[in-house]
Amino acid sequence: MTKPPKSKPLLRDAEAPIRSRPRKKRNPSQPALPFDPMPDRTEPALAVLKQRPPARGFCWEIKWDGYRVHVHIEPGRVRVLTRGGHDWSHRFPAIVKAATDLGPATIILDGEAVMFDEAGRSDFGLLQASLGASGKAPGKLVSPAVMMAFDLIYFDGHDLRGVEYSSRRHLLEDLLEGKEGAIRLSEIIDADPVTILDHACELGLEGIVGKQVDSVYRSGRTGDWIKCKCVQSEAFLVVGYEPSTGTSGGFASLLLAAYYGDALKYVGSVGTGFKQTKTSDLRAMMDKLAWTRKRPPVEYNGARKVVWVLPTLIAEIEYRAWTSDGKLRHPAFKGLREVQDNAAVYRVDE
Length: 350
What we know:
By secondary structure, the protein is an alpha+beta fold. The protein has helices at about 95-100, 125-130, 165-175, 195-200, 280-285; strands spanning about 50, 60, 65-75, 75-80, 105-115, 145-155, 160, 185, 205-210, 225-230, 230-245, 250-260, 265-270, 305-310, 315-320, 320, 330, 330-335. About 15% of the residues lie in helices and about 30% in strands.
């Protein structure tokens, strides 16, 4: 009969105390190694415009009127990135300070940088003025804007883009609950979306945004996020101006264009919404962009005297509807958007 093999003792010295293997000290320069690589930049999820909100499947909040930003928080570094991927940390110091206080966890917040008027409404014009939209010091002025955070893309070593929205929202609320500084939670409104939209319009707000409860975070306009506006507001290219007959150094209206395939199409003019003190600055900016070619940048059959300019400046325009011949109805100027913001210029269907 074969003898069983002798078992080896667990310890050479049965009387010796049990000790674990010595561990190396943690490198203080790496306080939290991520489980998932932290993305250097993420293209934002964008909302699709709808005339009326669907009844089910979405969470609803206020649509903020400002600059879309992603705030990246890492050990020793905070970045405030625009839609175009430009770092505007130096322009939003209050947001950077609030983001630093949220650390040391690695975080990417999605939200809107805004400023509020006396009635508590987000005001794009105030934000533009604080950032030097007149052109006197582009890219240099700082803004006291706050961030209304509405999504959490990355948290404490975990990439949350593959996690459903309801779970991301739960984590975001835990992170920002009770925060009243320069980074605040964009609140979910638990009510019928049609009623929410009606009240938003009565209060003079821009509209509401809905997010599909079980959707993951997908960049671009996928339909996971939708928006319903009280008034339409889009970005258009400034292609010329009508000189003012009353005052020198100003203008009577701006001529606007949208993309139409690979070309530009004239969509009308805007003559309201300008602050008296800013018209001369805007006129000076346009005069530096004088159009030197014989044919204007768009087809134009009007009889007005027009000074054409290079289609470089992007204007945010509020309007009520479109006319039957493809022009903006009751447009009003809200402000200039900066190239670094990567605002999507309106595209007319072919």
